[in-house]
C-alpha cells in the first residue's frame, strides 16, 4: 500500500505503522486523575505582540457559503461519518483524513498559529470529535516573555492569546497546573472532569472546566527540533468525554500539528530576535532578503544621537550589577518615548544610542521633539529615584540633525551591521559632543529647526565649528523643560 502513496503520504503512513505497533503493545490508558493551561494572574499577562496575533476569518467558498457552515448539522456519532474519518485503528493516509490533509496541505499560507487552532477545532467538531476547549502553550525567545498561550473555546471565532513574563513558572498558579507536569517531563496528563464531587479534582483549572460543563481533559507535549517541548491540550464537552477512537484521532494529528507549529514558531522567534536587536523596520528588510553587503537605500531622516556623561567613571565606581541597572533604566527612559512616537532605535553604542525618524512621516521632526521632552521627564524621575537610593545622578547629551542617510548593510564579508551612515549622521554626533562644551543637554542644527518649522522652545546659540566640517554650523538649544547639565 505504501507504494501507492505520494512521497509526503509515505512518510505519514510509515509513521502511522510504527505508531500502530506501539498502540498494539500499550494497554488502553484509563481516564485517570492527572495533575490545563495555567490561568494567568493579571500581573503575569502581557500585551500580545503583533507577530503572534492572527485575525481569524472564514473564507468564502465558491458557492457563496461561509466555511463556518462546515457540518452545521453535526453527527453525534463518529461511526456514521462519510468516508470513515476516524476508525478504532487510527489508520490514515492523508487522503483518508480530510482534516489531516487540510493541516498538511491547505494551511501553508496561514502565518498565525491561533488561526490554525481555531479552524482545526471547528473542523473536528464538524465531524463529531467533541472538542469544547483547546490550548497550545509555547516557550519562545523574547526579552520580556517566557512564552505564550493560545486558547480556543466553543463559539470563539478567534483565539485568545496571552503572553507570560519570566518567573511565571515559579508562581503558585503555574505550579498547581497540569501544564507544569508536562513541562517537567510527563508524556500525557488526562483527567476525568465528570467527578461528582469537584473537590476531588486536583487542580483549580480542573474545577473551572468542570463548572463550565467540560467532561474530559488531555494534554500532550509536542516536540520541536532539538527537544524543545511545547504543549497542546484538548477538553471534551460530550457526556462520557473522549472515546478511544477520539483519542486515537487526536494523537494521529500530533505529528502534523508539530511540524505546522514549529515552522510558524520559528518564524515568530526569528522576527522577535531581529526586532530586538536591529529594530522593526530593519528586521523586516533583512527577512525580506536585504542581506547583501553594500545593499541599502538613501532615506531622509531626522537623526538623534544620545550619550551619557561620565559613564566611564560611574562604571569604575559602582558594582557591575548597579551599573547595568542604571544603564537599563536610562535606556528605558530614552527609548520608550522614541518608539512611541514613530522613531526607530538603530543601535546602542555602549552608553549611547542612535535613532532616526524617517521624513516619510510629515510629523517626524515634531515627533522627535515630543520624544525628547518625554524622555527628559522620564530621566528626571529616574534621577529622583537614584538620589533616594544613593545612586549616581545621570546626565546626558543629545544631538539632532536632519538629512539624507544611507540605510543598509555595512561590514565585513561575514559580519554585517544594518545601520545608517552619511554626513548627516556625523553632524548629529558632533552636536552631541558639543553639549558638554556649551552645558546644554539638547542641541539642534538650524537645518532641523527649519525643517520643524517652529522656533518655539528653541534658543539660538550662534555658530560653532564642528570637527570635520569646513563651515560653522548654526546651533540651537531645545529649552522645553530643559535643565542645565550640572558639572558637565
TrEMBL record:
One of its GO terms (molecular function) is adenylate cyclase activity. The gene is cyaA. Residues 302-432 form the Guanylate cyclase domain. This is Adenylate cyclase. It comes from Rhizobium freirei PRF 81. SUPFAM superfamilies: Nucleotide cyclase. One of its GO terms (biological process) is cAMP biosynthetic process. PANTHER family: ADENYLATE CYCLASE, TERMINAL-DIFFERENTIATION SPECIFIC-RELATED, BLR2264 PROTEIN. PROSITE patterns: GUANYLATE_CYCLASE_2 (PS50125). InterPro entries: A/G_cyclase, Adenylyl/Guanylyl_Cyclase_3/4, Nucleotide_cyclase.
Amino acid at each position: 500500500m505504501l507504494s501507492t502513496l505520494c512521497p509526503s503520504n509515505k512518510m505519514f503512513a510509515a509513521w502511522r505503522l510504527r505508531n500502530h505497533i506501539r498502540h498494539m503493545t500499550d494497554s488502553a490508558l484509563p481516564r485517570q486523575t492527572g495533575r490545563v493551561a495555567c490561568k494567568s494572574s493579571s500581573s503575569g499577562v502581557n500585551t500580545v505582540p503583533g507577530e503572534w496575533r492572527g485575525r481569524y476569518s472564514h473564507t468564502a467558498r465558491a458557492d457563496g457559503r461561509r466555511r463556518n457552515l462546515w457540518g452545521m448539522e453535526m453527527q453525534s456519532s463518529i461511526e456514521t461519518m462519510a468516508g470513515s474519518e476516524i476508525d478504532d485503528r487510527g489508520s490514515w493516509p492523508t487522503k483518508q483524513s480530510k482534516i489531516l490533509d487540510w493541516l498538511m496541505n491547505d494551511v501553508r499560507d496561514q502565518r498565525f498559529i491561533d488561526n490554525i487552532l481555531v479552524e482545526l477545532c471547528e473542523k473536528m467538531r464538524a465531524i463529531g470529535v467533541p472538542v469544547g476547549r483547546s490550548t497550545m502553550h509555547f516557550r519562545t525567545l523574547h526579552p520580556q516573555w517566557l512564552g505564550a498561550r493560545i486558547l480556543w473555546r466553543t463559539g470563539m471565532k478567534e483565539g485568545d492569546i496571552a503572553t507570560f513574563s519570566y518567573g511565571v513558572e515559579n508562581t503558585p498558579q503555574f505550579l498547581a497546573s497540569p501544564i507544569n507536569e508536562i513541562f517537567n517531563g510527563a508524556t500525557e496528563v488526562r483527567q476525568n472532569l465528570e467527578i461528582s464531587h469537584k473537590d476531588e479534582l486536583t487542580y483549580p483549572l480542573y474545577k473551572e472546566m468542570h463548572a463550565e460543563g467540560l467532561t474530559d481533559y488531555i494534554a500532550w507535549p509536542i516536540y520541536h527540533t532539538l527537544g524543545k517541548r511545547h504543549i497542546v491540550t484538548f477538553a471534551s464537552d460530550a457526556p462520557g468525554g473522549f472515546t478511544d477512537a477520539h483519542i486515537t484521532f487526536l494523537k494521529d494529528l500530533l505529528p502534523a500539528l508539530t511540524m505546522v507549529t514549529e515552522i510558524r514558531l520559528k518564524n515568530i522567534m526569528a522576527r522577535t530576535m531581529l526586532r530586538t536587536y536591529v529594530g522593526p523596520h530593519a528586521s523586516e528588510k533583512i527577512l525580506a532578503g536585504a542581506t547583501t553587503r553594500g545593499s541599502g537605500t538613501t532615506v531622509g531622516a531626522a537623526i538623534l544621537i544620545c550619550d551619557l556623561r561620565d559613564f566611564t567613571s560611574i562604571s569604575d565606581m559602582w558594582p557591575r550589577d548597579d551599573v547595568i541597572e542604571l544603564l537599563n533604566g536610562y535606556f528605558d527612559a530614552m527609548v520608550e518615548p522614541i518608539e512611541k512616537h514613530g522613531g526607530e532605535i538603530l543601535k546602542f553604542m555602549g552608553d549611547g544610542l542612535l535613532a532616526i525618524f524617517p521624513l516619510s512621516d510629515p510629523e517626524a521632526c515634531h515627533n522627535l521633539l515630543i520624544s525628547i521632552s518625554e524622555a527628559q521627564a522620564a530621566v528626571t524621575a529616574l534621577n529622583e529615584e537614584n538620589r533616594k537610593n544613593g545612586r549616581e545622578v545621570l546626565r546626558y547629551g543629545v544631538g539632532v540633525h536632519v538629512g539624507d542617510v544611507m540605510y543598509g548593510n555595512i561590514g565585513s564579508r561575514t559580519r554585517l551591521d544594518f545601520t545608517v551612515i552619511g554626513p548627516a549622521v556625523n553632524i548629529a554626533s558632533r552636536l552631541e559632543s558639543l553639549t558638554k562644551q556649551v552645558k546644554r543637554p539638547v542641541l539642534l542644527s538650524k537645518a532641523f529647526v527649519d525643517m520643524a518649522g517652529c522656533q518655539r522652545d528653541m534658543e539660538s546659540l550662534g555658530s560653532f565649528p564642528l570637527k570635520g566640517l569646513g563651515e560653522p554650523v548654526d546651533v540651537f538649544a531645545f529649552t522645553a523643560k530643559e535643565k542645565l547639565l550640572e558639572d558637565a
